[in-house]
Design brief:
Blueprint lengths: L2 H24 L8 H21 L5 H5 L4 H7 L5 H13 L31 E3 L2 H8 L6 E3 L1 H10 L5 E3 L34 H7 L29 E3 L2 H4 L7 E3 L1 H7 L10 E3 L12 H13 L10 H11 L9 H21 L8 H17 L7 H24 L1 H7 L20 H14 L8 H18 L5 H8 L1
Antiparallel strand pairs: 1-2, 1-3, 4-5, 4-6
Helix pairs in contact: 1-2, 1-5, 11-13, 11-14, 13-15, 14-16, 14-17, 15-16, 17-18, 17-19
InterPro entries: UNC79 (IPR024855)
Pfam families: UNC-79
């Protein structure tokens, strides 16, 4: 085998590894590559290239200068797919801030019992807060004492009254601020966790109400029950009880719906601490539903920009204050990031708020009106990657959801598209700024026309709402501003 072929095959395999790392990071495919994996691959390329240069006694500049000596050049400098390597390195440089610095997020806590049967190499699962026992069994290790399952049984047998706390249970005193150091603009820094009311009252008395779930090793999307026989293996619950965690290496256990019903029922597992996926916003408790709906509305608002002043007095004041940097122009990169954040509002809206015949009209109208504002904010954007992503959402998810709303609640859609909608539909966009009635009509008409290209306005609906718009244009807009209406219509 020639030198070029012997080097080409492993180099091509390493280039494929870099391309695979890039795809897994960009598509969030688990497990994500670690920084050690990527650095080792790049070190391999540097060693190979240095080895090739070391084998060449001197650089034959004559061969490089004359293009007719390709065979001699390839004998000294083998073709190692340099273009593919260059493109792979460029892609790798783009994902460097997104790559975790280690293969595990948390270091494992090992057993601290001096006489541990596994040589203090087993993973600790429980913690003893008693200082006397911690000093007696831990040797030089300061309290508290972390013990493995075998040592925990020994402590229970020797000191039955001692309470051992489970490390898998939710912890208190956890920061509620995002700790991601690569977040550029500080958007959505506040991290919130909603606990399901599946926790038992005695569990809440011991551990408190404000808790964050932690110690999840790798959250799986499929059921982790080894003998699962369900056809739908998508995980819907996570159990933090030691009885279930013992089947998963003392880590929280993910179950599908069938396995969850078997493990947690009135006969067994009724006192386990577990959390469930939210399948529908309408099934949430009444006290929790408003938070879900307002979260969706807040995410959709990320796509809209501040409304510029329209009248002359406000514009003059805007110009005067701009010298003091009070009104700063938004950063284009920040605007693009905010628009991408708004897509999560679409995911929640389509996934959790599926319309039903008994859906509350005021809640549905508020969500629907904000969705129309989102259409208006994302219309007529430059043709780039962000715009293509948002347009794909409209065709793949939003149109079907809107069609179901129109079939079940046509009157709500009509009320949200009127020049003067009902009170609950006045959300987002122009309804959150102090502008004239004429500006409300012009922006509302522009918002209505943004829905036409997507075939969301039927002929019957257009016939019903147009008389209201004609009357609003005639009564609320001065003749001097008719030119603005012509611009909107064109």
């Amino acid at each position: 085998m020639s030198l070029g072929l012997s080097l080409f095959l492993p180099v091509a395999a390493k280039i494929k590894n870099l391309q695979d790392y890039y795809g897994r990071v960009m598509n969030n495919v688990q497990p994500l590559p670690s920084g050690v994996d990527i650095s080792n691959t790049i070190k391999y390329f540097s060693q190979v290239l240095l080895g090739v240069l070391r084998d060449v006694p001197q650089s034959p500049l004559e061969l490089l200068r004359h293009g007719g000596s390709n065979e001699s050049r390839l004998a000294l400098f083998p073709n190692l797919d340099y273009i593919g390597l260059f493109e792979a390195l460029i892609q790798t440089a783009q994902i460097v801030p997104l790559v975790p610095s280690a293969s595990q997020w948390y270091d494992l806590v090992l057993c601290q019992h001096v006489n541990c049967p596994k040589g203090r190499a087993a993973e600790a699962v429980q913690m003893c807060q008693d200082h006397s026992i911690s000093i007696f069994l831990g040797g030089d290790s300061p309290p508290p004492l972390f013990v493995c399952p075998d040592c925990a049984e020994f402590v229970h047998s020797e000191w039955p009254s001692v309470l051992l706390e489970d490390l898998l249970f939710p912890l208190q005193q956890v920061s509620l601020t995002c700790e991601n150091k690569v977040l550029r603009f500080g958007i959505m820094k506040t991290v919130t966790r909603v606990l399901e009311d599946y926790y038992r009252s005695d569990f809440l008395k011991v551990h408190g109400e404000n808790m964050l779930l932690t110690w999840l090793k790798d959250e799986k999307q499929a059921c982790q029950q080894w003998n699962c026989r369900s056809q739908q293996k998508a995980a819907v619950s996570t159990c933090f009880s030691m009885e279930c965690a013992s089947y998963n290496g003392n880590h929280p256990m993910r179950y599908c719906q069938q396995c969850h019903n078997i493990r947690h029922n009135e006969r067994r597992g009724y006192n386990h601490a577990f959390s469930m996926n939210v399948s529908s916003a309408w099934s949430l408790p009444t006290c929790t539903q408003p938070y879900c709906f307002e979260a969706i509305i807040s995410l959709l608002k990320e796509a809209q920009l501040p409304i510029e002043p329209k009248n002359q007095d406000t514009h003059d004041r805007h110009v005067r204050f701009s010298h003091f940097d009070i009104f700063e122009q938004p950063d284009p990169a920040e605007v693009e990031e905010r628009r991408l954040i708004s897509r999560f509002g679409i995911y929640l809206l389509v996934g959790l708020c599926k319309p039903q015949p008994d859906t509350p009209i005021d809640v549905l109208g508020r969500l629907l009106s904000m969705l129309f504002q989102w259409f208006h904010a994302t219309a007529c954007l430059p043709d780039d990657k962000t715009t293509n992503t948002l347009e794909q959402l409209k065709s793949d998810y939003v149109q079907e959801w809107l069609q179901s709303v129109m079939n079940l609640h046509p009157n709500v859609v009509k009320e949200c598209l009127l020049p003067l909608p009902v009170e609950y539909a006045r959300v987002g966009g122009n309804w959150e700024s102090q502008i004239t009635r004429a500006e409300h009509v012009k922006q509302g008409l522009s918002r209505l026309l943004c829905l036409v290209p997507y075939e969301l306005i039927s002929l019957d609906l257009w016939t019903e709402i147009m008389p209201f718009w004609m009357e609003a244009i005639n009564t609320d807009i001065p003749e001097a501003e008719y030119q603005d209406i012509r611009v909107v219509l064109t």
